[in-house]
Specification:
Blueprint: H1 5-12, E1 16-21, H2 27-34, E2 39-43, H3 51-60, E3 67-72, H4 77-85, E4 90-93, H5 99-107, H6 130-135, E5 138-143, H7 146-150, H8 152-156, E6 163-166, H9 168-174, H10 186-201, E7 205-209, H11 213-221, E8 226-231, H12 232-248
Parallel strand pairs: 1-2, 1-8, 2-3, 3-4, 4-5, 5-6, 6-7, 7-8
C-alpha cells in the first residue's frame, strides 16, 4: 500500500512547509516539490477546482515526492471519499464550528461500522485493506470562526481527528476585525495562539494558512507544525515581478502577498 507522505513528513520534521493550488495547473505541484516543499494543498473550497480535477492531479503526483492534502467546503462524505480514493494523504474540512461537524468529517474517512465511507479506491497502489486505507488518511478540522474558537476544546477532543488547521482571514473577519487585522491585531493573534495551544495539548497536529514566507516563520515560532506558505498564483506573481525588476534594473521591497485562507 502507498504510505502517507504527509504522516512521514510530520513524523520526521518539526515543521512541514506547504504550497497551495487553486487552479487546474499541471506544473504547479511539481514545481513546489522541486523547490523543496513537503506538501501541496488543493483548494476545492475557494479554488477553481472540483474533486474530479483534484483526482487527476493526484494521479499525476503518484511518483512525485510530495504529500497531498485537499481542502473541502464541508464534511459531505461523497467528495471526501472520492479524493481519498484518488490517493490524497489528508483532507482539510473548512468552517468547522462544533464537535459534531468534526465527528462527521472523521466518519467520512472511515468505513463501516466506524464511519460512512464507501469502498472504491481508484489507485491500485492503495491496496484493498480497509484498515490500512483508513490509517493512511489524516483529517484536519479548520477552526476559522469565532464559534469554532469557542468550541475548540470540544472539537479537539473528537476521536480520530489528526489535527486543527487555522484560517486567519475568516477568523479575523468573524471576530469583527478587518482582513488586514488578521496578522496584526493582538486579539486575533491571541486567538490563533489559543487554538494552537488547545490542539497541541490534545495531541493534535497544528496547521495554519500563513500565505507568505515571513508569516510562516512567525507561526513556526508560535509552535505550528504544518504551514502553508503560498499558492501557485502568489509564487508566479512574485517570481514574475523579480524577473521583470532584474530586467529593467529596478529594485523594490518585496511585499508579502496574501493568499486564500
Amino acid at each position: 500500500m502507498s504510505p502517507s507522505r504527509l504522516q512521514e513528513a510530520l513524523a520526521a520534521n518539526p515543521q512541514v512547509w506547504g504550497g497551495w493550488v487553486v487552479g487546474p495547473t499541471i506544473l504547479g505541484p511539481e514545481e513546489f516539490a522541486a523547490a523543496g516543499y513537503q506538501y501541496v494543498g488543493f483548494d476545492v473550497q475557494h479554488g477553481y477546482l472540483d474533486d474530479a480535477d483534484v483526482a487527476l492531479l493526484l494521479r499525476r503526483l503518484e511518483h512525485v515526492p510530495i504529500a497531498t492534502a485537499v481542502r473541502l467546503p464541508s464534511a459531505d462524505p461523497a467528495p471526501i471519499g472520492r479524493v481519498l480514493d484518488a490517493g490524497a494523504d489528508a483532507v482539510i474540512i473548512a468552517m468547522v464550528e462544533s464537535a459534531e461537524q468534526a465527528g462527521a468529517a472523521v466518519a467520512a474517512t472511515r468505513y463501516a461500522p466506524a464511519g460512512v465511507r464507501s469502498f472504491g479506491p481508484l489507485r491500485a497502489s492503495l491496496g484493498q485493506d480497509t484498515a490500512e486505507l483508513e490509517a493512511r488518511v489524516s483529517v484536519f478540522a479548520m477552526i476559522e470562526t469565532a464559534r469554532g474558537l469557542a468550541a475548540a476544546d470540544e472539537i479537539c477532543a473528537v476521536p480520530g481527528l489528526t489535527g486543527i488547521y487555522v484560517g486567519p482571514a475568516d477568523l479575523a473577519i468573524s471576530m469583527g476585525y478587518r482582513l488586514a487585522d488578521a496578522w496584526t491585531h493582538p486579539e486575533v493573534r491571541a486567538a490563533m495562539v489559543a487554538i494552537q495551544t488547545t490542539a497541541q495539548a490534545a495531541g493534535l497536529v497544528t496547521g495554519i494558512h500563513a500565505g507568505a514566507g515571513k508569516l510562516g516563520k512567525t507561526v513556526a515560532d508560535l509552535g505550528f507544525q504544518m504551514i502553508t506558505l503560498a499558492s501557485e498564483s502568489q509564487a508566479l506573481r512574485r517570481g514574475a515581478a523579480e524577473h521583470l525588476n532584474e530586467a529593467v534594473g529596478k529594485t523594490h521591497d518585496e511585499h508579502e502577498q496574501r493568499g486564500y485562507q
